[in-house]
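Review box. Two proteins, two foldings.
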Amino acid sequence: MGKQAGGKSARQRQMWPIATWGRAELPPIVFLHGFMGAGADWREICELLAEEYYCVCPDLPGHGANIAGDLSAQLTIAQLAIDLAALCAELGLHEPVVVGYSLGGRVALSTALQFPSLMRALVLESASPGVEGTLQRESRSATDDARAAALLAGGVPAFTKSWYSAPLFQSLQRYPVLLAKLQAARSANDARWLARVVRDLSPGRAASVWAELASIQMRTLLVAGALDVQYTSTVQRMAVVMPSATSLIVPDAGHNVHLEEPIVFVQALRQFLASCG
């Protein structure tokens, strides 16, 4: 059963910093960035959509300008979904489409499950419903604890360089200018916050929601890059169990489809939104 959207959480919630494109009277789309990112990551996409939609791009806690909160406050995917619903209510966004990439996709998916009447449609890019199996979850939690410790010990620039050298981001090596820009922007993040995000929002600690996917009735677009074999498989599996979902595998793209193939991403998003009525 979903919760009532827009209610305040038990803690005193600070409004997330946002970047916006388009006019407020246009149909709203909320874009949620990935780990180490910021709302401004969506600039290129939103500039292409600004004549048709009101694009709202918040900084998730611990990212961008959203580092003024209490470091000891609860930080979970489920809590971020509650805060996102409250943000939409505060901004007066009526039935927005929510687009989430990677970490942002996990928040968007949790929001769809907790507040099924909040959004008109859902778009998930390179997002997973979670890690299954006790041993796999324990292993992922331990890996992310080690990452958090390394981040605090070695600093954000070194962590960022290591992060983008992982196989998951291999396709970005084809775009050295884009990769250098990403690494420079990510290196400006706050180490204490990023360590908390790595540790507390680890997929090994967040609840797996695979069993709940069938309950999502809203129209959903699932996007992955063909070069990202892991998430291509995940997206195809999700599409089978979600009753109103369609999948899109983008050729010659990796984990970060909207940055690697922005024109293709916008075209797919426009077509999907048109089909939603």
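Next protein.
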Amino acid sequence: MSTDSDRRAFVQFALNEGVLRFGSFVTKSGRTSPYFFNAGLFNSGASVGRLSQFYAQALVNSNIQFDMLFGPAYKGIPLATATSVALANHPALPGRDIPFAYNRKEAKDHGEGGVLVGAPLKGRVVIIDDVITAGTSVRESVDIIRGAGAEPAAVLIAMDRMERAGSEGALSPHSAVQEVEQRYGLPVVSIASLTDILALLEGNAEFAAYQADVLAYRNRYGIV
């Protein structure tokens, strides 16, 4: 988890980088959302470097015991790589050099072969991704990690949308994050959440006009 100041700083950082935007956006689920978070727009050395520091700090603050990182293809690959670097330079982990691994979407049939790249999967493994939408990448990652004889320790994400899945008349009682926690018995650590976005809107006159729409969206689809 992140401290309040870390969470506020991250939301402001995402806003500055154009990763967090307000307006009208159709999501993958077909909903019209008044905000959009696209971590793929962290696409420069400076922005990914700063992003990895937020990931590293959130993981350190969580006090979760871990041995390595796993980044599911594709977005998780640069996230695991960069966060491993940030953890190696973190003052709370002197002498630690955190290994990482990731998977390919398709097995390689030459060279070393297989679907895994990087350090051997062993010990307690943190799965790192941008968001959890349907939980598909988490399920695949858990299967890969356990199949290698290692143990998933947690899931680390950038933003928790705190949003229920399902169709309009049959919304799930839980968010995607909550369902992952319940299904796999894993803690999900997020740098920030929808609550932090709303806190930004409350204190930012430039974007205050979007506050009512974001609140209405949360009331309609959000968890209590």
